[in-house]
Structures are given as structure tokens and as C-alpha cells.
Recover the amino acids of this structure.
């Protein structure tokens, strides 16, 4: 069954790792990307917003190619597509913009043909592209996701984010490609550091699942990626070390960075103190950053009706 009228999909941003859960833990966040996909006579793209400038508008486009993978898997042919895309998720900043495009493409294509593939299958396909399941898992399923990937299959557990949790992100004005932030990591680790991380990642997962916000500070510590990435994000080391003394429950590098993330109790009266501390510390290192308060997003990729306006405004075409 092909929906000739097309489908419109909304996909949340995501943060990966949450400190110790390297390539494992992810959380969906309330910034969104939209993809509209329709069968067409010839393939055409409409890209809205500066974030998408430069993305290919031919069949080499990743969204187009992933849609074709879904159709091939389902044994359906939809060779020509009209694809519209818009995104509020800043690119190459550690907020899962590429994961949102991958998930959006697979989910939209599957919906377009009546959803023959399971969510688990889409998760396997998304992880095969991204190579780690943390961002794509959160974007696909929403909430907090703990996931493992064996190279073929991704298995996940979804955790409903505690209602008292809010997220402050500091998005530096510079780009940091994930590849660069992965290249800097060591090939091997000491048993001491591995035990340090396994214990924190386990405690953090349990703390988030059971709403024990008091355990987050002890759990949100990492020795296997953040220390190596610190030189790439001036000011990060101090922010991660001192955020809890300025009102955060815990702080981490968001994914491969450069965005920094603090978990904060919703009714905290120290929000401005934390904002000022982060802004001041980055400023002392010559880094300009945009601070945003975000919500953990319970819903993952979903189909939205034509009535739910996507930011597809003619003036924004790139
Ligand atoms: N877990 C990944 C990393 C997320 O930290 O490199 C980035 O996509």
C-alpha cells in the first residue's frame, strides 16, 4: 500500500553517551527535524533553512538512498520521490542531526508504503549507517534509550525520562565533526578506567530508570572519552568538574561534542547561576555559545498530520 498523498514525519534531536554510556546511552531532546516524502514523477528536493544548505539535491542524497533501502527491503518500488526537509537541529554540534536525518528517512519511507518493516528492523538499518546505536535509538524511540549493537542487530531498552528532568545545552559556535572527535580516542584502555565507566554507566541507567536524581552526580562521570576530547572543547573540563556546584545534577559532553549538556531539576532556583557559570567559563576560553533549555522528548519519530505545521516556509528554501 503506497500512500500517494505522501507522509510528513517529525524526528527529535538526541544527545548521546550522557557521560559514561559511550556509544550506548542516548536521550531524545525537544528540537526537531521534519521530512515529507511523496511519490513523484521525477525526484525533486525542497530544503528549508540554513542548516540544510549544501545538502545534495539529487539521488546521491542520503535520505533518498535510505528510502530506497527501505523499499528494497520491503520489495516495493517507488523510484521517484518528492522530498521536503527542514531542521531546527544544529549541524555537527553533537545533537544528533545526522541521526535524525537517518531515522527520518527510514521512518518516512516505511510509513509511505504502509509500515511493513518493524521498528526493530528500522533500528538495525539506522545503526548500520550510523555505526553506533545511541543517537539513532533515541531519535527513533524517544525518551532515554540504552542500546547495544553487535554489528548486525541493535537491542534496546527505552526508559521514560523522569518528569523532573530538564536539560540545559550550551552549543558552541564552532563545528566539530564526529570523525575528528572519534579519531582522538585511544585504541585501548586500562582495566581501571573500564571499571570506572561500567560502574557509572550502570548506576546512571538505574538512576534514570528509577527517578533517583540524587545519584546522577556520582553516576555522570566518564574516563573513556571526555578526557581525550577535552582539548577540542576549551572550557569543557572546568564546566564538567564544577557544574554540580552551580546547580546542575550532572554534566557531560553531548555526543562527540562540541555541545555541553547539563541535567537540571525542573524546579531548581539555580538556573541563572548555572547559565552564567557556563557562559562565563566558555567566554574565558574565547568560545561563544548559545544556551538553550530543552525538554527530554518522550516521543520518537512520528507521523504528523498536514495540520501540524512544519517549518516549510517558501522564504527559507535553500
Ligand atoms: N557515541 C558517539 C560518540 C556519538 O561519542 O562518538 C556521536 O555520534
Amino acid at each position: 500500500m503506497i500512500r500517494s498523498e505522501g507522509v510528513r514525519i517529525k524526528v527529535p534531536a538526541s544527545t548521546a553517551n550522557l557521560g559514561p554510556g559511550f556509544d550506548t546511552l542516548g536521550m531524545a531532546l525537544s528540537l526537531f527535524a521534519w521530512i515529507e516524502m511523496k511519490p513523484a514523477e521525477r525526484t525533486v528536493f525542497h530544503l528549508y533553512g540554513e542548516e540544510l544548505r549544501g545538502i545534495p539535491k539529487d539521488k546521491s542524497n542520503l535520505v533518498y538512498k535510505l528510502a530506497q533501502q527501505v523499499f528494497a527491503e520491503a520489495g516495493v518500488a517507488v523510484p521517484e520521490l518528492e522530498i521536503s526537509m527542514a531542521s531546527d537541529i544544529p549541524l555537527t554540534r553533537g545533537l544528533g542531526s545526522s541521526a535524525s536525518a537517518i531515522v527520518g528517512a527510514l521512518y518516512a519511507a516505511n510509513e509511505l508504503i504502509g509500515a511493513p518493516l518493524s521498528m526493530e528492523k528500522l533500528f538495525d538499518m539506522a545503526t548500520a549507517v550510523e555505526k553506533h546505536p545511541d543517537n539513532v535509538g533515541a531519535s527513533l524511540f524517544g525518551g532515554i534509550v540504552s542500546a547495544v549493537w553487535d554489528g548486525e542487530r541493535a537491542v534496546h531498552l527505552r526508559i521514560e525520562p523522569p518528569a523532573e528532568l530538564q536539560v540545559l545545552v550550551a552549543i558552541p559556535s564552532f563545528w566539530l565533526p564526529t570523525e575528528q572527535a572519534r579519531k582522538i580516542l585511544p585504541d585501548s584502555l586500562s582495566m581501571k578506567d573500564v571499571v570506572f565507566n561500567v560502574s557509572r554507566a550502570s548506576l546512571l541507567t538505574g538512576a534514570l530508570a528509577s527517578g533517583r536524581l540524587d545519584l546522577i552526580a556520582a553516576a555522570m562521570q566518564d574516563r573513556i572519552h571526555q578526557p581525550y576530547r577535552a582539548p577540542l572543547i576549551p572550557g569543557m573540563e572546568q564546566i564538567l568538574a564544577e557544574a554540580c556546584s552551580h546547580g546542575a545534577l550532572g554534566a557531560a559532553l553531548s555526543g562527540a561534542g562540541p555541545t555541553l549538556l547539563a541535567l537540571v531539576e525542573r524546579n531548581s532556583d539555580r538556573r541563572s547561576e548555572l547559565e552564567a557559570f557556563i557562559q562565563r567559563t566558555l567566554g574565558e576560553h574565547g568560545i561563544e555559545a548559545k544556551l538553550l533549555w530543552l525538554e527530554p522528548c518522550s516521543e520518537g519519530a512520528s507521523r504528523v498530520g498536514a495540520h501540524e505545521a512544519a517549518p516549510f516556509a517558501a522564504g527559507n528554501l535553500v
About this structure: The pocket of L-homoserine is lined by residues 16-17, 22-23, 132, 134-135, 178, 182, 225, 255-256 (CB under 6 Å). Residues 191-210 form the longest helix (20 residues). The first strand starts at residue 7 and ends at 16.
